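Request: How about a record?
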Amino acid sequence: TRASIGIQDFDVRVQKAIGRHQSYEMTRDVIAELRTRGVAGINVDILYGLPEQTRDSLSRTIGLVIGLRPDRVSLFGYAHVPWMAKRQKMIDESRLPGLDERRRQSKLAAEILVQEGYEAIGIDHFALPGDSLAKARDTGTLRRNFQGYTVDPADALIGFGTSAIGCLPQGYIQNDATTATYQLRVEAGGKATRRGYALTLDDQVRRDAIEQILCQFSLDIDELALRYGDFVKPVRGKVAGLMAAAPNGALTPWRGGFQVDPAWRHHARLIAAEFDSFLAAQPARHSLAV
């Protein structure tokens, strides 16, 4: 059994800026209660790039988190997308850290977690040695979905609740985002699903290529070709372009694809984005990669 606790930042100024009031004591007591009731696995989420956030405030938050000793820590960059999340229009953008400060916050947070005994998993997760995520990373069985890294091999993820997203072999579905409408649909015995997207074979190839890069820092085109045949051609063509444009040593040719040099792994999200056919078509809808 596993529980995930959103922390973001314990700093009072940061919490006030984002309208989220959650004390360290409250979080500590909730985690203690979960463990008392037999919930062995504890995940926590920390954000960088929040309004009013500094490296000092982030360091203090991470210090408190380490004292709680969760099994896993997710370190995400705050996504400021007021054109999608209307409530974010209430946030004063002048109080947001700049891009360089975001990078520094991310780097500092990762360094502290590693110094305190956590192992880096992929691009934004950390886990204690022996955790199933660390084992999956080492055995090449680590997976990633829209909720983060996982060891679950299931090809279906069903979302419950307002706006929840589900993943099926055929594609993605999302529940109604309005609480009242969602409740009415469920109470009437109907479907809560509001919209869906059916994956094409090209989508599936690109999804698997992106997952490989984000989980293993490599892209195995030979393996993809065994499963998808000629449908890997567009991805193979993108590999050739990336290899030609990449700085010397950043990408090493491997099994028709490449391996990302350890010194360049912090760019894995940007490398993976090159294979996302939707990203280029709608660049303004997405948040910063850092």
User: Anything to note?
Assistant: The chain is about 40% helix and 20% strand. The chain has three domains: 2-138, 165-198, 201-285.
